[in-house]
Amino acid sequence: MNPWELIIQQPLINVLIVIASFFGGNFGVSIIVLTIFINLAMLPLTLSQIRSSKKMMDLQPRLAELQKKYAKDKQKLAQEQMALYKETGIKPAGCLLTFIIQLPVWIALYQSIMLTMAIAPEGLLNLSSYLYHWEIVFTALPLSRSFLGLNLGEPNFILAIFVGITQWVQQKMAQTPSSDPKQSQQNQLMLWMFPMMFTLISISFPAGLPLYWVTNSIIRIIMQYRLSGWGGLSRKPREDTGGKDKKYVDLISSAERKSTDDVGADIVITDQQQPPSKSRYLPGKDRERHRRKR
Amino acid sequence: MKETTKKKRSRRHIGKILILAVLLLVIGIIGFSCVQGLTPVGWSGGVVSDNTLYVGTKEGRLVAVNLADGSRQWAAQLTASGGGGGLFGCMPAGGGCSGGSSGVAIYGTPTFGNELVYIAGYNGRVYAYAKETLATRWVYPRDYYLAPIVGSAVVSDGRVYLGGSDGYIYALDAETGDPLWNSPAADEKGKTEKIWSTPAVSDGTLYIGSTNKNVYAINTADGTRKWVFPTEGSVTATPLVVDSTVYIGSQDRYLYALNAADGTLKWKKMGENWFWAKPVIYEGKIYAGCLDGKVYVLDAATGNELITPFNPEGPLAADPVIYEDNVIFCTREGKLYSIDTAQDVLNWDVTLDEQGKVQVNGPLAINDGIVYIHTQDLTLRRVNAETGAILGTISLSSGE
Q1: What angle do CA A144, A149, A150 make, to 5 degrees?
Q2: Residue A220 confidence (pLDDT)
Q3: B249 contacts B231 by C-beta, under 8 angstroms
Q4: How far is B294 from chain A (nearest CA, A)?
Q5: CA within 20 to 30 Å of B382's CA: A22, A89, A122, A151, which one?
Q6: Is the minimum CB–CB distance between B230 and chain A shorter than 8 Å?
Q7: Residues in A touching B234 (Cβ below 8 Å)
Q8: Is the CB of A190 inside 8 Å of chain B's CB atoms?
């Protein structure tokens, strides 16, 4: 057994089996309970990730302004963006880093679920090498794959669709708006691509895996909602805003019309917590003021 | 100067993000790739008749190997029951990732009777072939597929018996393949679970284990139940029936000895993992290989441990064979152990592949002092039973 199997997979597999034994050997309940436990254990990381996303969301108007201002000088734009991130305490790589730390845990959970399900006879034989010498583990097997009328050992189309829906909702809530059309396009692509990809995978895999993904997405949706509301889900697309967000649209338009070459251009504050208002942004001065405050 | 430093810094930052993104992608691809053991491959053992060894391969074919000259003959490939495979080949009945089989997996060892050789496939069908030509004689069922079959079929008194993953035991006419009876191996709630065990038939009674944790004794005449014995774990092992006693391993870590007549417990012996392989008996001693990597030597009458267990240092899943007064075991990693039963000492040991790339899960076969081991790399390996010398390999691939 390699260190990954010994330290990560083996404990997770045995915990899955023990949890199942407390719920009448039901593997479905065991998957849900363990996913909740792991999410709780990773709560600090997840919260920091969600907070970073929110900060990023709040920063979008200022980033948009910088993009307008330095549209022709990409290097300068990058420098200014970095300066802005530094000023506001945002680490763009931080989100990714947090995700990288979490990823092995999700992979381990996925692998443990698939191993414990022991779909093929080889899987069952392999499972024997992961078991601790606890009586409860040996008597709990085989786990019941029947859960809410589903056979967790076989692919389930409805659950696969549900994976796509929950992932779309979660991503939409977490998505940071961007004034850069390219970025916007990329965001839109990701918003559809990932849920579709996971739906396709779910159709191919035993339903135990989609059950884990759905549970995970629902937990993330709840956390996201508690921390930053509906996020991207509540923002209406610009063309659909009608008269309600007219001021917002007007302000953007006026900002676009103005020349941004001079220092002291207008910016738009679009934070949803505050009513949209116009303020004068002085990059050099404001940054200086911010530094002094700190 | 200041500008250049800033440029360098921003470039470094972008570089870091790129490295992280690539790292993320690599971890994701490796981690979420298929898990080993998800795709059925098969582990059919070999059986010898008239100097010809019959074995099922992971290509989904029955192969007849002439042991005199090494020539091979292949039967037609088994047909998949449809479905399965999935978009990424991660569901049963398909090939794809994790070294999955390119054909229908065959777990059962072939068996023969009269002029026919029989094999059961993971596609849920039983096939009968002419021994000489490997031409298909009959298929059961003809128009549909049963649930996957993992255990071997056995032939007794002109009948073929087998258990299916639908929890039913089937009896077929060996000549025609016509169904005679089927019997559910249900628990006290009437629920059936998969049967992956190979049945054993003795004196008009069929003995078989089920993953519903029970051992069943069934009348071979009509499929009615004689007795049922509950264990604490799934029973996937093949029973050994000798002298009115049924010896069978369970996944509750016990090897059970039951009275064949009424299913009462004679004794039970605990290991540290599952007793997956069928035990063997020689001169009143039981030799039972366990997935804890030990061979237990027990008194067949009392279950008492006679000596400290042998430790071949590897889980034992393959059914052992007896050669003269030696018992030969093979670990899953392909390490063979010969135990001299007269003195209960290790006779010889040999590793099939020093690089540890072979895997042995299916039963061993023996003929004329040569042990035949079907490894999962589509190869039949041969070892001298007397000395442990490796005698070379025979490829079972139909493409060679």
Answers
A1: 70
A2: 84
A3: no
A4: 14
A5: A122
A6: no
A7: 141-142
A8: no
Q: Kindly report which listed range (A128-142, A243-257, B43-57) carries the lowest average pLDDT score.
A: A243-257
Find where tokens 């006290």 sit: B188
Q: Is residue B29 part of a domain?
A: no
Give this prediction's pTM.
0.78
Least Cα separation, residue A166 to chain B (angstroms): 19
Q: What is the DSSP string of B347-373?
A: EEEEES-TT------SPPEEETTEEEE
- Under an 8 A CB cutoff, do A123 and B37 touch? yes
What number is the average pLDDT over the span B262-281? 95
Domain borders along chain A are 3-235, 240-293
Residue A239, pLDDT > 60, answer no
8-state DSSP, A177: P
Same domain? For B71 and B106 the reply is yes
CATH code for the domain in which residue B53 is found: 2.40.10.480
- C-alpha closest to that of B108 among B70, B177, B57: B57
Q: Report the distance separating Cα B96 and Cα B288, nearest Å.
A: 35
B82, B186: one domain: no
- Chain B nearest CA to A126, separation (Å): 7
Residues ≥6 apart with Cβ < 8 Å to B372: B46, B48, B53, B364, B365, B366, B380, B381, B382
A242/chain B closest Cα distance in angstroms: 38
Identify whether the C-beta of residue B227 lies closer than 8 Å to the C-beta of residue B308.
Answer: no
Amino acid at B196: W
> Looking at this predicted complex, what is its ipTM?
0.85
- Distance, in Å, from the CA atom of A126 to the CA atom of B198, rounded to the nearest integer, reads 20
With CB atoms and an 8 Å threshold, state whether A128 touches B6.
no
> Does the beta carbon of B7 lie under 8 angstroms from any beta carbon of chain A?
yes
How many domains does chain B contain in total? 2
Assess whether pLDDT exceeds 90 at residue A18. Answer: yes
Same domain, B107 and B184: no
Query: What is the residue range of B146's domain?
Result: 38-152
Interface of B with A in 12-41 (CB under 8 A): 13-14, 16-17, 20-21, 23-24, 27-28, 31-32, 35-41
* Phi and psi angles of residue B7, each rounded to the nearest 5 degrees, phi first: -60, -45
Which residues of A are less than 8 Å from B39 in CB distance?
A: 120, 122
Q: What does the pLDDT average to over A115-125?
A: 86
- More confidently predicted of A52 and B86: A52
Query: What torsion, rounded to 10 degrees, do the Cα atoms B269, B274, B278, B283 define?
Result: -30
A window 209-268, beta carbon within 8 A of B: none
Residue A77 sits at the chain B interface (C-beta within 8 Å): no
B103, B193: one domain = no
Residues from chain B that touch A82, judged by Cβ atoms under 8 A, are: 9-10, 13
pLDDT for A283: 46
- Predicted confidence (pLDDT) per residue in B133-184, tens digit: 999 999 999 999 999 999 999 999 999 999 999 999 999 999 999 999 999 9
Summarize the confidence of residues B42-51 as an average pLDDT: 93
Which B residues in the span 113-172 are in contact with A, Cβ-Cβ below 8 Å? 150
Q: Which residues of A touch B86 (CB under 8 A)?
A: 155, 203-205
Nearest CA in chain A to B211: A142
CB of B187 within 8 Å of a chain A CB? The answer is no
Which H or E run includes A274?
A: none
CATH number of the domain encompassing residue B214: 2.40.128.630
Q: Which residues of A touch B24 (CB under 8 A)?
A: 96, 99-100, 103
Q: How confident is the model at residue A279 (pLDDT cuts 50, 70, 90)?
A: very low
